[in-house]
Amino acid sequence: MQFKQYGLLLVITLLVILFSVTAPNFLTSDNLLSVISGMAIVTIVAIGITFSLSIDGFDLSVGSTVTLSNAIIISLFVWHGLDIGLSIAITLAVALFVAFINIILIIKFKVPDLYATLATMFIVEGGALTYSEGGSISQGMTRQNGVATTGKIPDAFKILAEPIPLIIIMISIVLITYILLHRTNPGRIMYMIGDNKHAVQFGGIKTTKYIIISYFASAFFACISGILLASQVSSAQVNSGSGYLMTAVAAAFIGATVSKSGKPNIIGTFLGALLIAVLENGLVMLSVPYYGLNIIKGLVLAGALIINYTQFKQRRLKRVTYRSEIPVTQQSV
């Protein structure tokens, strides 16, 4: 493994050392627990994005899916008084329908992934806003038509927001998706599709199935994140999931520097989310204004992309050089 592949771990380690010196409370157990549990939602959203990126796609609708899932599950508790199991099942079904819309646009109508999911993002954002009647949803609220709500958010549901359950859920998802994406044939095929879709098709593999899987996975993990967000805040706020999109995208792309091939991967995505969480927490403890955090995150992402694409160009140059050195008779074999 090349030294550059350790760069992300090195940066995280240096940040921890820096913040532990400049912010005395940074290394306290409570703060570290807050950092790890606080990155759970971003990590899970970013894992969904990693699935779409593995096939050389890009799902921009995950943020709005988080918002919609948050609104749906809270409304099912507060407006309709449903139990946890049924509420989660309905919320998952709605989120997977968002994936279905993406799949129809991408596969049926051949719309490029970026444009298709951008359109879906606006549709779902508008749908979530319309469904929530243009405002927040909370326990004990009165709806726009003047009807008082009597449903309650179950106490058992709120347990999901506790730090330990959040960390357990996050780590479990990281481990399971790592095995699925990196240690199984379907996962390897998804990366092969991302490398060269047409070559995979010529090999007799139906790529459509794997594209469908990737977008369903993206929506599924966005939904899980929306459910966890609902558990944290015990309400549904307008566009509550929009803030997770860019941070999750940054985590996935930053994590790509861990891979030899420069591709987004599960472990790298987790480390990318950890880097952002450590950075945000440390800067907040140093009283850096919140409106300056995005500038710093953007600079970190730009640095990661420079490293990643520099490595990509170097690898491509080596392959071209190697190919040119092979005798013509061997190249034709």
Please provide the count of β strands: 2
The helix/strand class is mainly alpha
Characterize the largest beta sheet: strand count, sense, and whether it forms a barrel: 2 strands, antiparallel
Q: List the strand order in the largest sheet.
A: 1-2
**Helicity level, as a percent range?**
over 70%
Molecular structure report:
Helix content is 72%, strand content 1%. It has helices spanning 7-22, 29-38, 40-54, 62-78, 84-108, 113-131, 155-158, 163-182, 185-195, 197-202, 207-233, 242-255, 266-285, 293-325, 328-331; strands spanning 137-138, 235-236. Strands 1-2 form a two-stranded antiparallel sheet. The longest helix has 33 residues, at 293-325. The radius of gyration is 22 Å and the shape is globular.
Name the descriptors:
333 residues, mainly alpha, two-stranded antiparallel ribbon, globular, disordered C terminus
Q: TL;DR?
A:
The protein is mainly alpha-helical and 333 residues long.
Topology summary:
Layout: H1 7-22, H2 29-38, H3 40-54, H4 62-78, H5 84-108, H6 113-131, E1 137-138, H7 155-158, H8 163-182, H9 185-195, H10 197-202, H11 207-233, E2 235-236, H12 242-255, H13 266-285, H14 293-325, H15 328-331
Antiparallel strand pairs: 1-2
Helix pairs in contact: 1-13, 2-8, 3-8, 3-11, 3-12, 3-13, 4-5, 4-6, 4-11, 4-12, 5-6, 5-11, 9-11, 12-13, 12-14
